[in-house]
Amino acid sequence: MSSGAERTEQPLQRPSFADAPLDADERERLRALRAASSENSPLYVAILTALSEAAKLMRWRRRLDRDGIPCSPDDWMSCNTTGRFLNPESISQLFDRIVQRNGLPRIRFHDLRHTHASLLVADGTTINVVAERLGHAHPAFTMHTYQHLLPGTSGAAAERFAELVANASR
């Protein structure tokens, strides 16, 4: 799978307002905001970052269009070099070949998703954040799936509760 970015792409340049896909009114509001804020303000930095990302996206879309690769919202996100649908099984087969070639223990491509979540949960990342990263609609589903990775949390909670009760009674 390719993100469309090329390794030989020029380093990120300071974006200009002209690069942004904005209409004249939006561009004028941004110019006024720029005049009112210092170049180190968080808002100004956030605007420049957003403009930079928009400019990169526009260049990427122009490159796809120039190469005849579809890039509308209805097109496939994962496609082959001709812009056609990429069968998910192809990615799994490629992953299997890479694992085998490197002498790694055999796991399914989908297992990487569970490894990702398991490592985050075990490291203390909140369930809400993990659920969001996995695209789960409800954190309860994530909690149900990965709660076995939180051993000892009940004991830690009991100890903390005991401390709170002891401190409150003083």
List keywords for this structure.
single chain, 170 residues, 2 domains, flat
Number of domains: 2
Helix content: 55-70%
The sequence of SSEs as H and E is HHHHHHH
Structural class based on helices, strands and sheet pairing: mainly alpha
Mean pLDDT over the full residue set: 76
Radius of gyration, CA atoms, in whole angstroms: 24 Å
Structure commentary:
The chain is built from 7 helices and no strands. Mean pLDDT is 76; it is low at 1-15. The longest helix has 25 residues, at 42-66. With 170 residues, the protein is an all-alpha fold. Helix 4 (111-122) packs antiparallel against helix 5 (127-134) and helix 5 (127-134) crosses helix 6. The protein has 2 domains: 1-77; 107-168, no CATH class.
Short characterization:
The protein has 170 residues and is mostly helical. It has helices at 24-36, 42-66, 88-101, 111-122, 127-134, 139-146, 153-168.
What is this structure's SSE topology?
Blueprint: H1 24-36, H2 42-66, H3 88-101, H4 111-122, H5 127-134, H6 139-146, H7 153-168
